[in-house]
Amino acid sequence: MIAEDTMLTREGIVRLLEGAGVEVAAQVGDADALLRRIAQDEPDVVIVDIRMPPTHTDEGLVAALRIRDHHPDVGVLVLSQYVEPSYATRLLDEHPEKVGYLLKERVFDAAILVDALRRIHDGETVVDPTIVRRLIERRRRADPLAELTAREREVLSLVAEGLSNRAIAARLFITERTVEAHTTQVFAKLGLDDDPTTHRRILAVLAYLRA
Questions:
Q1: To bridge 4 with a disulfide, which of 10, 123, 174, 193 should be the other Cys (CB 3.0-4.6 Å)?
Q2: Which structural domains are found in the chain, ordered by start?
Q3: Cβ(44)–Cβ(75) below 8 Å
Q4: pTM of whole model > 0.85?
Q5: Count of CB atoms within 10 A of residue 153's CB?
Q6: Nearest CA to 64 among 12, 97, 99, 36?
Q7: Neighbours of 128 (CB within 10 A)
Q8: How far apart are CA 113 and CA 7, in angstroms?
Q9: Mean pLDDT, rounded, of the chain
Q10: pLDDT band for position 96 (50/70/90)?
């Protein structure tokens, strides 16, 4: 299902998805209509714009959080016109799995959009690489990641994009075992113990976003 108040954008996303073989169960123009449709028939994944009527502030984000609360099997991909790391952090804080945050410009690349939807449906987390890059570049007064090496930072930035160890290894031209070694060091330096009740990759991403 797609929730986007701009008709041309909404129909453009529908055409891209249908052209890629993805079934669009419904398309609506506001968050309330989206919530009503989901109550009737749960889709696999929802695409929702953050800024929607009536105030065009965070209605889409609030709807996304409600969907994850009341429909845990439904994945959510949130779209934003602007780089807003605080929204991504809020989404991951409350529901760290089966969610994604992409800049709206990214959805007009069918390959990126479909890949994000599939990964979210599989239980992964997707964060737009532009947000990750901005976070890398900005200055930090108190940096909890200061102890990380350049390579460990690089690996963590790719973890923040939602990439698997195999995908990170392919991106950096290193072995999967080397990636595992780097992530183990990252977890240790961030004080993330190997606790079966927590998801250390998501906690590492949250530490990265908050830094």
A1: 10
A2: 2-128 (3.40.50.2300), 139-210 (1.10.10.10)
A3: yes
A4: no
A5: 16
A6: 99
A7: 26
A8: 18
A9: 85
A10: confident
Phi, psi at residue 101, to the nearest 5°?
A: -140, 110
Give pLDDT tens digits for 51-93.
888 888 889 999 999 999 999 999 999 998 887 777 777 777 7
Residue 187 phi/psi, 5° resolution? -60, -40
Token readout for 179 is 């990636």
DSSP-derived pairing of the beta strands 75-80 and 45-49: parallel
Phi-psi region of 128 (alpha: psi -120 to 50; beta: other; left: phi over 0): beta
Do residues 134 and 99 touch, judged by C-beta distance below 8 A? no
Amino acid at 113: L
pLDDT of residue 191: 76
Tokens encoding 13: 């996303």
Q: Are 77 and 38 a contacting pair, CB within 8 Å?
A: no
CA atoms within 13 A on the CB side of 49: 24
